[in-house]
# Entry
Amino acid sequence: MRYTLVTVFLACAILFFSCKGTEPEPPKPPVPTKYEAVLDVFTDSVVKAANIPGLSIAVVEEGLPAWAEGYGFSDLGKAIPATKYTRYLMAQSADPVVAAAVLQAVTESGLDLDAPVNQYLPFAVRHPLYPTAVITLRMLLSHTAGLADDSTQLASLYGPGDTQVRLRDFLKDYFTVGSTYYSVNHFTSKRPGKTYQYSRIGIALAALAVENRTGVGFDLYCKTHLFLDLGFSSVSWYLYDLQSDLVALPYMRMPGGNYQAQALYGYPMYPSGSLRVSSELMARFLSAALSGGVYSGQQVLSSAQVEDMLRVQNPFIDPSQALGWDTYTVGGRSLSGIKGSDKGYSSCMYISPATGSGVVILANTTGIDALLETLVLKALSVAEQAD
# Structure
C-alpha cells in the first residue's frame, strides 16, 4: 500500500509541475474570406486614393448575397461613416425597380404591357405628331414611347426635402396641352415604337399606370408588394419615411477638389430616380433577378417575367435596352444592369447571368464612372474565384 501511495504522489507531483509552466494557446484569428482579404482592401484603397466622400458596395455570388461593406462617410461634416446599411439615392438605377413593380402589377392587377397605356391612366397621353399612335407600358419601360425629356425643365423641379406635388397632378400638367409644363418638345420627331430615347418621364408614367390601376400610391404599392417580398425595411422614395442619419448626403466636387454638401432633395417625377436604398438590400433584388424571380423562398416575379425583363426588347431600334435594364460589355464581360447619376449621387448595378454573380455600388458624389467600372470588374472577379 505504501509503495502505491508513493507512486501516486510522485506521479501527481510530476504532472503538477509539468503543467504549471504550460500556457493555453491563444485562439487563432479567423481566416479572412476572399472578400475581406482582397475586395475590402482593394475598395478601401481606391476610395481613399480617389478621395470619394462615401461609397457602399454589395456582391452576389452564385445567385445569393455574399458580402457588403461601406467606405468613407455618408456625412463628412458629422463624420458619420458610410456602411452597408447607408441609404443612397439611386437615380436611373431605380428603373429596374419600377419595371419589377409594373410586372408585379401585371400579375396581381391585370396590367398588360402591350395594351394602350391610356386605359390605365387618369388622362390621355398623345404624341402631337402622331395623335393616333398607341403608347404601351413596354414602350415606356424600354424608352421607345417617343418621349423626350427636357433636362433643364426637370432640373428646375428639384427642391429641398420631399416634393409637395402629387405624381398624377404633375404628369397631367406635363401631358395636357395648354398646361404649365406642357411642350411639344417633350416628344421625339419619330412615331412611338420606332425610336429609342431615354426618358425619365416615361418611367414615371409607367409608375403612375400602376398607381391608377391599383388605387394605391406607387410608393405604397412598392412597400406592400415588392419591398415586402424582398424583406426591405427603411427603404423609400420619400425622405419623410427615413431616419436622416441613415441617408447619405449628396456631395458635389468643387474646383480645387473640395466637396460641397447639398441639401437632400426631391422632385415630382419621383419614381424616376429618388428611391433611397442601401447596397446590402439591393443585393437581394439582384439575387431575385439571378434566381428566376425568387428571393429567400418568395416568388417576387415569375421566371418568365424575369426573362422578359432582362431581354433586349427591340434589337433593331436599340441593341441593348431591356425593360428598365440595359445590357453592357464591361471589361469584355456581357452584363445586364444599369448605371445612374443625379445631383451628388452615383450608382450602378450589374449581374452576370452566365456566372450567377452580381454587384451594386452606391456613392454620394458624381463623376466617378471609370472608378465604379474598375470596382465592378474587381468585385465580379473575386465573386467568381474559388473559396
Summary: Residues 15 and 21 are 11 Å apart (CA to CA). Residues 2-20 form the longest helix (19 residues). The first strand starts at residue 54 and ends at 61. The chain has a mean pLDDT of 92.
